[in-house]
Write a structure and sequence with these properties.
Elements (H helix, E strand, L loop, with lengths): L1 E5 L2 E3 L21 E3 L1 H17 L3 E8 L3 H11 L3 E6 L6 H15 L3 E5 L10 H9 L3 E10 L5 E8 L2 E8 L2 E5 L11 H7 L4 E5 L31 H10 L5
Parallel strand pairs: 1-4, 1-6, 4-5, 5-11, 6-10, 7-10
Antiparallel strand pairs: 2-3, 7-8, 8-9
Helix pairs in contact: 2-5, 3-4
């Protein structure tokens, strides 16, 4: 069983994000970067699949600047076997990412591609679905449980939907995107960190893959969220109704 896990380099969720004064992006000085949390869950699930089967290979792939090697090393320290770094300095939209991943899938021929349902920096929630469409593979998004068949030829996925839980099954190969409740990612152990230094990170230039990486979607401007004003205390229901009608204008 070969599992390919796509991981993205994103700002740490605990980091305070500041928008540039001209709205062209975020201030990157003193920003700590981590593996996208949903991708980390996808990696954990890939590692659990390998451990349950007793054999297999978990391969990481990430697209971006050379600094993504830091996040790939983290994934290797968690237990992944090797990694692929696709070098690209420009901003990519979801379709460009899906096209690049499709080429990597063609080269590696995995049975399963696991990735987060969305990245926390843009919240696009598109790359997994687009990748499935490009490959013509079945997909299961928002996975909260993954169960392989005994013969490893198919998979059953429980996914979170608005009305509750839905179970879908399909023959492999296929795409699965992870939701929050799929698992709790492990921490990299000290032995794992030491071993990660010797594991392979293959570098490929995006331009060498022969795909069109011209973005169809561009961000025109970013704005910080509007600061919320403090609430008010009222003495009576009548005063509350008056404020809702005259000031908030919601009734």
């Amino acid at each position: 069983m070969k599992v390919l896990v796509a991981v993205k380099r994103v700002p740490d969720p605990e980091t305070t994000i500041r928008v540039k004064s001209d709205g062209s992006g975020i201030e990157t000085d003193n920003i700590k970067y981590v593996i996208n949390p949903f991708d980390e869950i996808a990696l954990e699930e890939a590692l659990r699949i390998k451990e349950k089967l007793g054999s297999g290979e978990v391969i990481l792939v990430s697209i971006g600047v050379k600094a993504v090697r830091e996040q790939l090393r983290t994934g290797l320290a968690m237990g992944a076997d090797r990694a692929i770094s696709v070098g690209c300095d420009q901003e990519l939209d979801s379709l460009c990412v899906a096209r690049i991943l499709a080429k990597i899938v063609e080269q590696e021929s995995p049975e399963i591609v696991l990735m987060g349902k969305q990245a926390i920096d843009d919240d696009a929630n598109q790359a997994g679905q687009m990748l499935a469409a490009l490959l013509g593979w079945p997909q299961a998004t928002f996975a909260s449980e993954v169960e392989l068949s005994d013969d490893q030829q198919s998979v059953k996925v429980t996914r979170e939907v608005d009305g509750g839980l839905e179970t879908v099954g399909f023959a492999l190969p296929g795409i699965i995107t992870s939701d929050l409740r799929l698992n709790e990612p492990r921490y990299a152990s000290l032995p794992g960190i030491m071993k990660a230094r010797k594991k392979e990170i293959k570098e490929i230039a995006a331009a060498d893959l022969g795909v069109d990486i011209t973005p169809r979607l561009t961000v025109q401007t970013l704005e910080p969220p509007t600061k919320k004003e403090g609430g008010k205390k009222v003495e009576t229901v009548a005063e509350l109704i008056t404020l809702l009608h005259d000031e908030a204008k919601v009734i």
